[in-house]
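Changelog note: in this version the structure field was regenerated for every chain. One regenerated record is shown below for reference.
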Amino acid sequence: MTDTIAAPALPPTATPPAPVAPVREIRNPATGAVLRTVPEQGAADVDRAVAAAHAAFTTGAWPALTRTERARLLLRCADAVEAGSAALYELETANNGRPITETRAQLSRVPEWFRYNAGLLAAQRDAVLPSDGPYLTYQRRRPLGVCGIITPFNHPLLILARSLSAALATGNTVVVKPSELTPLTTLALVEMLYAAGLPAGVVQVVTGGREAGQALTGHPDIAKITLTGGTEAGRAAAVATASRFARVTAELGGKTPILVFDDVDPVSAAEGAAFAAFVAAGQSCVAGSRFLVQRSVYPAFVTALAARAAAIRIGDPADPRTQLGPLISAVQRDKVAALIAAGLADGATLVTGGGVPELPAPLDEGFYLQPTVLADVANGDRVAQQEIFGPVAVVVPFDTEDEAVAMANDNRFGLGAGVWTDDLARGHRVAERIVAGMVWVNDHHRLEPSLPWGGVKESGTGRDAGTESFDDFTWIKTVVVRIAEDDVDWYGSADPGRLN
């Protein structure tokens, strides 16, 4: 029998040691090495962050700023982000494993979002509405209050910037919950905004996982949630916000079809469209992972796509020569590998890739997967219907335009789509018939701050970017002013007028 040894009693004047706050290790997916640790925050931290943001919205310096002052501040924020952009490129590449050339191309545009929304704010006009009778009727847009922004691991800084810039321009305060895997550039960006003069408390960051996200979406003082993530997370957020009639914008999953017609050169189309499948290692909601190819050019397209995929340079994301980096984690790589195996079990043909590349140390500890092409896939197969979120392209043949459109729409998602054709009329015609929030013709994944971004069906609700996003961070107050000279006496008048 083993004796139990009691812990020594504390002296009467001693106090127990403070509990050690939990932390999360943030890893470099290219090597598995720990970059740094951040607090693993939860519901209590969300409460504190929301309270601080609410105080900043109601009693701080923020509500006292005029529209012109807010617009100028956003422009200073844009300049600050631009000045610190090189550090942001390196930090995001280290944190999410995206090649530095891709990261630079994407994040170099972040200042545009602040400038665009500053421009919308400066140009904003309140509507004067037509009224019968002696009335002047006008509208005023007012900020919602404290808004929550939940961002994903794949494009943490750009997705944050497009929502945050609109929320701030319209006068809201914000609590940000970045992905627990990639919080580093979010923390860096917020530091830059405060250095540029953002008033205290206006933007709060909570670093945590599911508990923090659920607490934020369910918080009674959050007026709007903007979320980018999986469909189930979006569904949960929609339920939580609906219970208190808060707003939600959710950009969720996708299974983007890329339609390739036989009037286009299949080799050129394959080389151009490969970007859709393999950019960000396929970890994008609009990744073109489902190629629908007209049968007469199908063999040539598959051969060309496989050749392009096999030639992609895999390596250290910090190396400008690298064209494809790792997946975000070992867990994600295992999920993608399992879906590849499922596709093969369903009868698909592995044309290229499918395995873990051989890389030198320390990259051999990273979460890499070869760019993969699966041919001979049926549109109803799991790999053609489920979001894979990895560097995997499936290729499905079709015969007619009507069949291609039907196959493209035969999916629960509706975020994006691509059409490759040399027939201009066909491009317009097919784009019109596809059920998706965004359609590109002879290109992919191009965006501007003015273009509303979002999907239909299980790909989400609402829009980020554009005037649609700007306006949705406000509520409308309608003011009716009677301008007649005579007094109002409803009960003493023989003809008091109309009443609606």
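Spot check on this record: The first strand starts at residue 23 and ends at 27. Residues 1-13 have pLDDT under 50 and may be disordered.
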